[in-house]
UniProtKB/TrEMBL annotation:
<dbReference type="InterPro" id="IPR026019">
    <property type="entry name" value="Ribul_P_3_epim"/>
</dbReference>
<keyword id="KW-0413">Isomerase</keyword>
<feature type="binding site">
    <location>
        <position position="176"/>
    </location>
    <ligand>
        <name>substrate</name>
    </ligand>
</feature>
<feature type="binding site">
    <location>
        <begin position="196"/>
        <end position="197"/>
    </location>
    <ligand>
        <name>substrate</name>
    </ligand>
</feature>
<keyword id="KW-0464">Manganese</keyword>
<keyword id="KW-0862">Zinc</keyword>
<dbReference type="GO" id="GO:0005737">
    <property type="term" value="C:cytoplasm"/>
</dbReference>
<keyword id="KW-0479">Metal-binding</keyword>
<feature type="active site" description="Proton donor">
    <location>
        <position position="174"/>
    </location>
</feature>
<dbReference type="GO" id="GO:0004750">
    <property type="term" value="F:D-ribulose-phosphate 3-epimerase activity"/>
</dbReference>
<comment type="function">
    <text>Catalyzes the reversible epimerization of D-ribulose 5-phosphate to D-xylulose 5-phosphate.</text>
</comment>
<dbReference type="InterPro" id="IPR000056">
    <property type="entry name" value="Ribul_P_3_epim-like"/>
</dbReference>
<keyword id="KW-0170">Cobalt</keyword>
<protein>
    <recommendedName>
        <fullName>Ribulose-phosphate 3-epimerase</fullName>
        <ecNumber>5.1.3.1</ecNumber>
    </recommendedName>
</protein>
<feature type="binding site">
    <location>
        <position position="7"/>
    </location>
    <ligand>
        <name>substrate</name>
    </ligand>
</feature>
<comment type="similarity">
    <text>Belongs to the ribulose-phosphate 3-epimerase family.</text>
</comment>
<feature type="binding site">
    <location>
        <position position="65"/>
    </location>
    <ligand>
        <name>a divalent metal cation</name>
    </ligand>
</feature>
Length: 217
């Protein structure tokens, strides 16, 4: 059964406490938190004050996906705010190995996200050092986009690389995840599914989380 990480970006920010409590009481495993700077991606999400509020309420693993340039300057702050996993974009880091080591030196798990156009082979020399590979199944920056069908092949390719290199990295998928494709994603090799609109737009979000988990058995 896959791990499930509801995306806070799709939560109701007019009543965020309610949605955070819902995730705490659900069968979900992680909180997925998208941080966007309006530079690396054409959108801006929440900043540190909102992240601090999330940290006070969230009782599960907190997984931060940084869609920002120069992420290194903020790692100490993310550590103080209780983040467990930091995922940075391959496309945003000039010195990827150094950036990964900076995350690990702060005793956080390190992940690398790949935009849809970025080939998994580019992780060949870094995969041993990673705890997570985030395969983007939509273009980063906005929720509610259409799922890119090539994602299944890309997940399988990433899984092959992980096995060949004897890496312990998990494969996470973000974008357009729903009941209709959850099983196929895990069958392709995904370990962690990020779901936003599918959960928070559901009539019964708790039941949707449960159904998503069951569908990946």
């Amino acid at each position: 059964m896959a791990l499930l990480a509801p995306s806070i970006l799709s939560a109701n920010f007019g009543n965020l406490d309610k949605d955070l409590d819902m995730i705490n009481s659900s069968e979900a495993d992680w909180f997925h938190i998208d941080i966007m700077d309006g530079v690396f991606v054409p959108n801006i999400s929440f900043g540190f004050p909102v992240l601090e509020a999330i940290n006070k309420k969230a009782k599960k693993i907190k997984d931060a996906h940084l869609m920002i340039i120069n992420p290194d300057q903020y790692f100490q702050t993310f550590k103080k705010l209780g983040i467990d996993y930091i995922t940075i974009h391959y496309e945003a880091c000039i010195h990827l190995n150094r950036t990964i080591q900076e995350i690990k030196n702060l005793n956080m798990k390190a992940g690398v996200a790949l935009s849809p156009h970025t080939n998994t082979n580019l992780l060949e020399d870094i995969i041993d050092d990673l705890d997570l590979v985030l395969v983007m199944s939509v273009n980063p920056g906005f929720g509610g986009q259409k799922f890119i069908e090539n994602t299944y092949r890309k997940i399988a390719s990433c899984k092959d690389l992980i096995i060949r290199k004897n890496s312990k990295a998990l494969i996470q998928v973000d974008g357009g995840v729903c009941l209709e494709n959850a099983k196929k994603l895990t069958d392709s090799g995904a370990d962690v599914l990020v779901a936003g609109s599918c959960i928070f737009n559901a009539k019964d979000p708790l039941q949707m989380i449960k159904d998503l988990k069951i569908s990946t058995k």
